[in-house]
Amino acid sequence: MNTTTGAMNSSAFSPAHHAPRLLSGWCSTGATATLVEHLRRYGPPALGTRTSPMSVVEAVEAAGLTGRGGAGFPTGRKLRAVAERGGRAVVVVNAMESEPASLKDEFLLTVAPHLVLDGAVLAATVVGADIVHVCLPRTRAVQFGQLRAALDERRSARLDPVRLRLHALPHTYVSSESTSLVRWLNGGPARPQGSPPRTHERGVARRPTLVSNTETFAHLALIARYGADWFRQAGTPDEPGTLLVTVSGAVAAPGVLETAFGTPLDVILDRAGGRTESLQALLLGGLGGTWLPAEHLRVPLARRELAPLGAAPGAGVLVALPRAACGLSETARMLAYLAADGAGQCGPCRFGLPAVAEDFAALAAGRSDPDRLSRLRRRVGLLPDRGACRHPDGAARLAASALRAFADDIDHHLTQGACAAAHRPPRIPVPPAVPPETWR
Questions:
Q1: What are the C-alpha distances in Å from 25 to residues 41, 159, 317?
Q2: CB count in 10 Å sphere of residue 61
């Protein structure tokens, strides 16, 4: 997949498809929106002069907006929890996007930075915050400069009633976890905290803190402008609105798309240019997600429909795996990366993940046996709900789904050694399995 934002697939936003919302400006111009262009398109931000803080919360609750970072927590409930704590609060924009297969937040910030910042400033007004921290990966220096210029535009226009500060954090798989951001902003390592108090109770500088994903803030900005009924015109009754998805793998035009909840998976693949090869499976949700066999490609992208398959939209990642690839080998590399990039603070990360990754690597290489496979299954089952964060849970979900989706391949690897596809070059880009250089 082309991993540069500038090479993103924009053809998928043609009027023949679902009308984009977050990316409408990009679709019409193909260029990053300046502050002047942004205000001309959307008008001034809906701040307290026209809208009371609690009416914004009520509108977000009525809209049914959920977090777009992966967990899908109701945003209105999160806003209300921080607002009702009282006192000065803090807002954090989580733009870390640690999922390697996801590019949606990077893309959105590149093409519509002011939409995200509008939502973050509005959230600050709602929860009583006087500062917004925008957290980016340290590896995205170009985007850091672009956002700094966007903040300068807003400062020159005297647009915002709160301060906005930009930060560059170490980029690890777990550094996008909300408590990792809070811990880093408080002077510590960008590792999950894993213990009370919860962020909305006492977060940055011991103040109530709202942490939300980049895309979530952009939706919030549009709901405040156009209302809950408008937001519900797309999506399903249970999951209204649109979401950004990153499509990669065996498709003709990989990139970031905007689609409505409830869109069948195969339709999304068609919008990404269609399949370039016959598929055996789809990885949904990223490296901490779920393998779905190709027979499920007509399932809608919605939590209710995906739950019986053990899957969820996650951070909106779809990776199409061709039949010519070895799903076990691809999964083994992912697990090795997840094991190396864990926080290393508790048993599942320090011992469980490396053990699962080692067993899976042996299976992929054709060096396993039935006893080792039984041990692998047992270890995978021991990982969930035991860590300080959800990192081991995601790795266990990936491993368990691979054991189901590639069951026929497992028999081949056990009885005849690694398949021919296992000896070919990998098809899915995965970062090197090396521990982070720094947490600070």
A1: 8, 20, 23
A2: 16
